[in-house]
Amino acid sequence: MKRKIIPCLLVLALSASLAPSVLAASPPAVCYPSSVTRSEDGAQIRKVYELGPGEDPGGIPRSDFEQEGFHYTLTDLLKQEAPEQESRPHTETVTLDSKSKDMESVLALLPAQREFTTEDGLTGVLTLKLDTVKVEVAGYGSSTRQVSATRSYPNLAGQDTSFIPKTIEDGGRTLELATINWQADNTANVDGYEMANRYTAVVTYTGTATSSYVKGYTVTAEYSGTVSKIALNKVRYVAMFEGTPLNPVEPEPDPTPAITETPDAPPAPAIQFHWAYVLVPLGVIALAGAGVGGALIIKKRRENETEMEDDTE
Questions:
Q1: Quick one: three-class SS letters along 54-82?
Q2: Residue 76 CB contacts under 8 Å (≥ 6 apart), including other chains
Q3: Which of 45, 90, 87 minimizes the C-alpha distance to 70?
Q4: What is the pLDDT of residues 218-273, one digit of tens each?
Q5: Strands 44-51, 167-170: parallel, antiparallel or unpaired by DSSP?
Q6: How far is CA 259 from CA 3, 254, 256, in A?
Q7: What is the value of pTM for the model shown?
């Protein structure tokens, strides 16, 4: 049983160690051309590939292939940067603080045009849309201050505070008694002394008042226009293939028949040149010429002799 388990464990360990290398060696995805052009004589094919920034050019086929009677071989692979201008309409919302809600003051904070750059790098000059300007209260604050009120209580028989209210309501706030100022309203003669018998109490009440106020204003507005940028979103590869005909044109055959030898037939004897074939006909022609020439000479002599005999007679 142990003999069976050990080989299995070794196989699993080997597979685990080889797994990353197998994944790393996976071939790139095959790329397909965006256009293919062929020369008129068929001697060249040009394939254009448009690849994105993340695509691997290793997927461009480089192997030889045959097409329409030609065998094509890759001779060059050219890389061309393909810059493209990307543009689109864009609206940008701006938010800023203002101490006033007066529209003239608000518009002074908003220029008619502003330059913006989007998160993906597009830039443009946008124009303010006046109908989108809004002013809202940013928030409220509160403040507390001391307030006071005075009350008079006349015709009091004595300086007795029990007749004086300890709190009053003033402007929706509750104030508490702070000080009392007693004033004599009337005097009477008692045992020869003038004694006050009527009093007026002037009472001061104090308290706190809390009021709210606007801290500031928030202004929002929209700018709109066109943003653009020039980016290298694509890389162009041009694969150049040179072609050779599969059936090349053969030269015209020689009109002189070629001497062929069969494996079983003995070799043909070598052709030898004999001068006799040339000299014998030439000798015959020369003898014939000499014979003709001799006959003409004899004939001429005979004619001369005949003329001489005629003259003698």
A1: CCCHHHCCCCCEEECCEEEEEEEEEEEEE
A2: 239, 240
A3: 45
A4: 999 999 999 998 877 788 899 999 999 988 656 666 666 555 555 555 555 544 54
A5: unpaired
A6: 76, 12, 9
A7: 0.40
